[in-house]
Amino acid sequence: MDATEIPLKEPAVSVAAGDTEQVERALIDASTRVPVLMFYASAIAWLLIGTVLAGFVSFKLHAPDMFSNISFLTWGRVRPAHMNVMVYGWASMAGMGTAIWMMARLCRTTLRHPLLLVAGAWFWNIGVLLGVGGILAGDSTGYQWLEFPPYAAIVLFVAYVLIISWAVLMFRFRRGEQIYITQWYLLGAFLWFPWLYAAAQLMLFVVPVQGVLQSAVGWWYANNLLFLWFGAIGLGTAYYMIPKVIGRPVYSYHLATIGFWTYALFSSWTGMQRLVDGPFPAWMITASIAATILTIIPVATVGLNHHMTMQGYFPVMRYSPTLRFTVFGAMSYTAFSLVGVLISLRSVARYVNFTQASIAYSHMGLYAFFTMVMFGSMYYIVPRLVEREWRYATLIKLHFWASAYGIGLMTLMLLAGGYVQGGSMNDASLPFLESTQSVLPYLRGRSLSGLLLAASHFVFAFHFGLMLLGLGRTSTVPTFLNPVEAEGSEGHI
Amino acid sequence: MKGLVSLFIGLFGTFAFSWLGLTLIPNFQIGHLDPQADEEGTDIYPMPQSGMAERGRRVYVANGCFYCHSEQLRPDYIASDLDRKRDLDPHPKWGERRSAPRDYIFARPALLGKTRMGPDLANIGKAAPAEEESSAPATSGSPAASPAQAPSASLAPSAAAASPTPSASASPVAETEPGEPRPYSAAWHHRHLYSPRDVNRDSDMPAYRFLYEKRPVAGEHFADALQLTGSDAPAPGWEIVPSYDANCLVAYLMSLDQSHPLKEVKSGAPAPAAGGSPTASPAAAKGTK
After folding, report:
1. Buried b (16+ CB within 10 A) or exposed e, A47-72
2. Which residues in A lie closer than 8 A to residue B96 (C-beta atoms)?
3. What is the pLDDT at residue B179?
4. Rounded distance, CA B91 to CA A119, Å?
5. For residue B131, what pLDDT band results from cuts at 50, 70 and 90?
6. B interface test, pick of A212, A292, A345, A427 with most B CB neighbours within 10 Å
7. Min distance A217 CA to chain B CA atoms (Å)
8. Does B104 contact A353 at a Cβ distance shorter than 8 Å?
9. Which end of chain A is least crowded, N or C, by CB within 10 Å?
10. CA-CA distances (angstroms) from residue A2 to A184, A240, B7, B215?
11. Residue B211 phi/psi, 5° resolution?
């Protein structure tokens, strides 16, 4: 792929946009209003449900006797319910909402037949509801990240086809020949996800592969979902929001091209490192470890590109909620990938395999990176849809700091706990129970971090609810986190 | 437009490459393994599980046991899995050899596990006391009863014969020993599932009481009733009885056994395999043929 062949269009950032452009954007925003808000509202509802379930999961780990008489509240059912609510309810729906809006803006076309997209969102919700209900009722399939029973998976797939055909249609009716970086990532995500999902369903349930290969397919799916679905949408969003907010084009599209294609190539080959030292041909695991190490290339190029774009504009993070969340997410992407490299190395993996460290890794990817970027995009998009500004800067700040400290503490606790747990697990002279006992203090710390995250989610949901009810501020100036000082920065926000 | 075409080809190609490389080629390599047999075609391993054990696997999956218990042992040059003894009964150890793809050819789903908040269960059926171990296959009543199982079943004809109920594995201990069930026996598993902290005070396992039924004693105590002491014991005149699902779950646990030697894996050898290089891990690679 020749980098120069994809002409780069910076997002329409011109500060003094012409009148026609303003009107055009307003029309596009209006056409996406109902479906995108529908996706966001559903996502946030799932986020709250997932948060409550996460509370159960976290507390039951160090208080195992809670609710032991109730089958659907047993730890082994609530955990996958939490996981799948967050993955398919919250993260996927938030991602699709943001993706649809960005696609409409970047294709400079209004969304046609938005009600069909709304139907897609309903189907998706029904699918998640069926799936979570199925898990709690004891119908889990037993494949991590794919626990939804097949009847829910079918509904999800139908919903997805409905949703995505509209995105593709939008792309078909785009105006202008140029395709911006974000669109590469979004098109990638839209194409990869159904393929990935169908391939995994096919190889696990329709024509099941034999024995251990089910685990291989399962982790191949999980990692690719993390990278090629959430990762692609998250990075695409960061490529849109950062230049947009600071009003400056992306630093280098050559870097962006390298970053994109190495990302697609290497991150899709990861996954088997999670099965390190398991009963598999060693080459599979080695290939994934090598691919994980090679993801340093896209991480470095994307990180450098974002950094250079932001160069000199970091103070804007003081004011813009979008930028603050997005940059936090983009930085977490780097941290997430580096931790991924670290725990995939065989010399480290022997200590942290089978410990809480892998849970830290998933949370870094899904929360510290993806969820934070999604929060950022919501702070940008929602005011444009409801034509009101966020009401309270204090609530945004509270949301940010509670999430940032919450996920930071959670990651630290799980990584440190995983290391300690692995240390005692690998010492065969200690009783096994010692390893479980040694991680318990860290799990209590994790529960504490969960409380912070729960607080941040409820604050955000409340604020979003105000916006939905039309109780935002009517103002032409966005809500800044801090009062903007007289000179300088205002023009960039 | 040319840019668009190459964009789509690129998107398509990168993912197809990964699909091919990480799922289709491995499927070609280890996706069609057969059970191993000796020259006479006997001593076949592994064997398909009985109906009860298979249903027990569903119970195991439904309640998410695999989130905390792995069913795989790493090779000795990587980790101490093979040196590890069980907490309650040091003999036998977690296992004598690493797990290999062939161990799982009938497992659906294969529950390798990703986290160990509890001990590995790859050989938990093997850890049962001797008489339990022999009665466990006998309970299966599998139509595919194997030549391999036949001798072990005949070692304990009394246990098998004396227990016509599907939950036979619980009965030998109940009949012979009124005291504590021996660790990793079927009766012990039931008690552990019902009240983990009664068995081990520091255990972190949730109790699975919803798999058990509390009912008034009708005449004699039911043979399978749990032997509980202390605060968990039911009031006089009541007993705690495993449900069918609980019996299936225990049958599944008792069926977990990777102790049979495999040609492609070194068994119980202290010597490091293949020069101790993890990348040269021999076991799985040889599993192809």
Report:
1. bbbbbebbbbbbbbbbebeebbeebe
2. none
3. 64
4. 60
5. low
6. A212
7. 6
8. no
9. N
10. 14, 22, 10, 74
11. -90, 0
Please tell me which residue of chain B has the smallest CA distance to A60. B206
| Inter-chain CB proximity A354 and B114 less than 8 Å | yes
Q: What does the alpha-carbon distance between residue A435 and residue A334 come to, in Å, rounded to a whole number?
A: 30
Q: What angle do CA A416, A421, A427 make, to 5 degrees?
A: 135
Q: Would you write out chain A's pLDDT as a tens digit for each of its 493 residues? A: 344 344 344 444 444 556 788 888 889 999 999 999 999 999 999 999 999 999 999 988 888 888 888 889 999 999 999 999 999 999 999 999 999 999 999 998 888 888 889 999 999 999 999 999 999 999 999 998 999 999 999 999 999 998 888 887 888 888 877 889 999 999 999 999 999 999 999 999 999 999 899 999 999 999 999 999 999 999 999 999 999 999 999 999 899 999 999 999 999 999 999 998 899 999 999 999 999 999 999 999 999 999 999 999 998 888 999 999 999 999 999 999 999 999 999 999 888 999 999 999 999 999 999 999 999 999 999 999 999 999 999 999 999 999 999 999 999 999 999 999 999 998 888 999 999 999 999 999 999 999 999 999 999 999 999 999 988 888 878 888 888 654 444 444 4
Q: Tokens standing for A64?
A: 């195992």
Q: What token pair was written down for A131?
A: 């799936």
* Contact across the interface for B21 and A287, Cβ inside 8 Å: yes
ipTM score: 0.90
Tell me which chain A residues have a C-beta less than 8 angstroms from the C-beta of B110.
Answer: 211-215
Cross-chain residue pair A64–B204, CB shorter than 8 Å: yes
Query: Can you tell me which residue has the tokens 């004699």?
Result: B220
Distance CA A388, CA A379 (A): 11
Cross-chain residue pair A212–B101, CB shorter than 8 Å: yes
- Flag if B105 and A211 touch (Cβ within 8 Å): yes
Q: Is the confidence at residue B157, as pLDDT, over 50?
A: no
pLDDT given for residue A270 in this prediction: 93
Closest chain B residue to A285, measured at CA: B279
The position carrying tokens 């709690």 is A136
pLDDT tens-digit profile of B48-96? 988 999 999 999 999 999 999 999 999 988 888 888 888 888 778 888 8
Would you mind telling me the total number of residues written for chain B in this entry?
Answer: 289
Q: Specify whether the CB–CB gap between A64 and A119 falls below 8 A.
A: no
B210 contacts A71? CB cut-off 8 A: yes
Place of tokens 């040269």: B280
Least CA distance to A137: which residue of chain B? Answer: B62
A and B: number of Cβ contacts within 8 A: 254
Structure tokens at B7: 């964009």
Count of Cβ atoms closer than 10 Å to residue B106 Cβ: 14
pTM of the model: 0.87
d(CA A132, CA A152): 9
Distance from the Cα of A397 to chain B's closest Cα (Å) equals: 36
Give A-chain residues touching B7 at CB under 8 angstroms.
Answer: 1, 6, 179, 184, 187
CA closest to B213 among chain A residues: A69
Q: Nearest Cβ partner of A212 from B83, B112, B116?
A: B112
Residue B278 DSSP class: G
Listed in sequence order, the residues at least 6 apart from A63 whose beta carbon sits closer than 8 Å to its beta carbon are none
Residue type, A297: I
How large is the angle between the packed helices A75-84 and A114-136, nearest 10 degrees? 170
CA atoms within 13 A on the CB side of B194: 26
* Probe site for chain A from B17, B23, B24 (most A CB atoms < 10 A): B23
Q: What are the tokens at B91?
A: 């003999």
- Which one of B7, B11, B101 has the shortest CB-CB distance to A280? B101
- Contact between A27 and B159 under an 8 Å Cβ cutoff? The reply is no
